[in-house]
């Protein structure tokens, strides 16, 4: 008997033979699952890597496990099933998933009946090839459509569950909430449209209900997630991200609201106005530019010019007082000349971002860019990356120095090993408070007394308004 392919959308998935449990040297013991009677609810260890979307999928899967009577998020040594939520965006993330899987093999063989499941982008991208590579893999499913996987587990472990498990009260203050999946852009270097599919937005009412539930459990800051979040469209009303922000902003008890990741194409004046007018929406905009040269942007198929991008940034800054800007940049993309790279240097120096995530280009098989030569030598990619990092370090310090003596609000997330509370400002900057001045979950106002490139030191702390 074969475990059914769990995602109807992933038609290239091969049926996965059921658990090859026990010692590797033993012959495969038939195709029937070997699921011991536990006499208690099965326990699940969840592990994820990659973007915030996977972080959100982790939470969503944990809730689904609790709904079918499994105990989610236990330590690995206590678990019966380990679920890996994988990432395929970069090859080093994939290597970490293979490494984690390897670590799980002795764990699985230590106690017959343990099982390993894999989901996330690698499951969609590689499909059946993973089954040959991972002989100890028991289940594989598409995280966008996990119903078949859960139905299968319910049929296997039905005798051990007593009904839904109450999720423990969360000590989380921050949560990610996916509002849409997929991406309709086709940036030539990116694998996301192939592994996450076309854009599909969730109804606003469903998102609002999710956030309400999180706030009731103690969450105070929510980040709305989408690969291309500012192209969000409510499937019924057709309303966009500004209206969604307004609906979520109205939830009592939610202190802070952010959104990730925006595409410059959809960064429109109405969005900036919503950021200015809605009290919970933080003054932080992540607007990936990727490169500062028109020809390079064309090869990346980013559908905007440098001038258009600069205009959007100018409008955002003019509309939202105190706006912090962050971006993503790729260096060493196929054919990137020194002159094209200099365009990126100029853009970075002119815009003066608060934080820049810089990646050296690495080819993702299956993308359009994979058909082009990866012709910038690694050593040159590293030089360009370090050059941008050096410039950015200086800019970040100057921007933070400009905050000296100003008052900022900090949502305290915890207490460090040094005994000092830490958290983030509305602009997303890490801030440290004096020892004993606050606890996790407090909202504090204070004066910026000292800064480094990446952090603020706060004193004269009081309760925030
Ligand atoms: S917009 Fe982002 S997620 Fe979509 S294809 Fe481009 S890089 Fe990938």
Description:
By secondary structure, the protein is of the alpha/beta class. It folds into 3 domains: 2-160, Rossmann fold (3-Layer(aba) Sandwich), CATH 3.40.50; 174-401, pyruvate-formate lyase- activating enzyme (Alpha-Beta Horseshoe); 407-463, OB fold (Dihydrolipoamide Acetyltransferase, E2P) (Beta Barrel), CATH 2.40.50. Helix content is 33%, strand content 20%. Strands 15-16-17-19-18 form a 5-stranded mixed beta barrel. The protein has a 4-stranded parallel β-sheet with strand order 3-4-5-6, with helices on both faces. Helix 8 (241-249) runs parallel beside helix 9 and helix 9 (269-277) packs parallel to helix 11 (306-319). The chain is globular and about 65 Å long. The relative contact order is 0.08.
Q: Estimate what percentage of residues fall within beta strands.
A: 15-25%
Instruction: Count all strands and give the number.
Output: 19
Residue share in helix:
25-40%
Low-confidence stretches: 1-32
Output the CATH topology of the largest domain.
Answer: pyruvate-formate lyase- activating enzyme
């Amino acid at each position: 008997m074969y475990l059914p392919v769990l995602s109807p959308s992933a038609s290239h998935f091969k049926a996965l033979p059921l658990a090859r449990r026990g010692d590797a040297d033993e012959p495969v013991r038939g195709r029937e699952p070997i699921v011991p009677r536990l006499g208690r609810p099965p326990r699940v260890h969840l592990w994820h890597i990659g973007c915030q979307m996977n972080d959100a999928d982790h939470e969503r899967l944990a809730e689904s496990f609790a709904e079918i009577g499994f105990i989610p998020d236990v330590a690995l040594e206590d678990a019966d099933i380990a679920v890996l939520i994988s990432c395929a965006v970069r090859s080093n993330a994939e290597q970490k998933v293979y490494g984690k899987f390897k670590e799980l093999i002795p764990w699985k063989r230590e106690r017959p009946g343990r099982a390993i499941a894999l989901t996330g982008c690698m499951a969609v991208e590689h499909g059946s090839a993973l089954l040959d590579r991972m002989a100890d893999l028991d289940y594989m499913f598409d995280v966008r459509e996990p119903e078949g996987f859960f139905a299968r587990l319910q049929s296997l472990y039905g005798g051990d569950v007593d009904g839904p498990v109450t999720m423990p009260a969360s000590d989380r203050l921050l949560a990610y909430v996916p509002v849409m999946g997929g991406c309709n852009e086709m940036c030539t270097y990116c694998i996301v449209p192939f592994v996450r599919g076309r854009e599909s937005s969730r109804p606003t009412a469903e998102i609002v209900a999710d956030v309400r539930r999180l706030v009731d459990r103690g969450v105070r800051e929510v980040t709305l997630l989408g690969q291309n979040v500012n192209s969000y469209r409510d499937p019924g009303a057709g309303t966009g991200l500004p209206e969604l922000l307004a609906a979520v902003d109205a939830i009592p008890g939610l202190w802070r609201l952010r959104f990730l990741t925006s595409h410059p194409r959809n960064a429109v004046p109405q969005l900036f106005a919503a950021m200015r007018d809605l009290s919970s929406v933080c003054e932080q905009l992540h607007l990936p530019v990727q490169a500062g040269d028109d020809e390079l942007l064309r090869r990346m198929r980013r559908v905007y010019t440098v001038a258009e991008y600069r205009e959007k940034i100018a409008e955002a800054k003019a509309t939202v007082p105190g706006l912090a800007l962050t971006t993503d940049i790729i260096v060493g993309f196929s054919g990137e000349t020194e002159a094209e790279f200099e365009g990126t240097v100029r853009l970075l120096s002119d815009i003066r971002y608060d934080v820049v995530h810089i990646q050296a280009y690495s080819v993702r098989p299956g993308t359009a860019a994979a058909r082009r030569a990866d012709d910038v030598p690694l050593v040159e990619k590293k030089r360009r990356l370090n050059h941008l990092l050096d410039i950015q370090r200086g800019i970040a310090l100057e921007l933070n120095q400009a905050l000296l003596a100003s008052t900022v609000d900090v949502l305290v997330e915890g207490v460090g090993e040094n005994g000092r509370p830490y958290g983030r400002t509305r602009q997303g900057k890490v801030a440290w408070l004096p020892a004993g001045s606050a606890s996790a979950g407090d909202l504090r106002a204070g004066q910026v007394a000292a800064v480094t490139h990446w952090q603020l030191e706060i004193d004269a702390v009081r309760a925030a308004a």
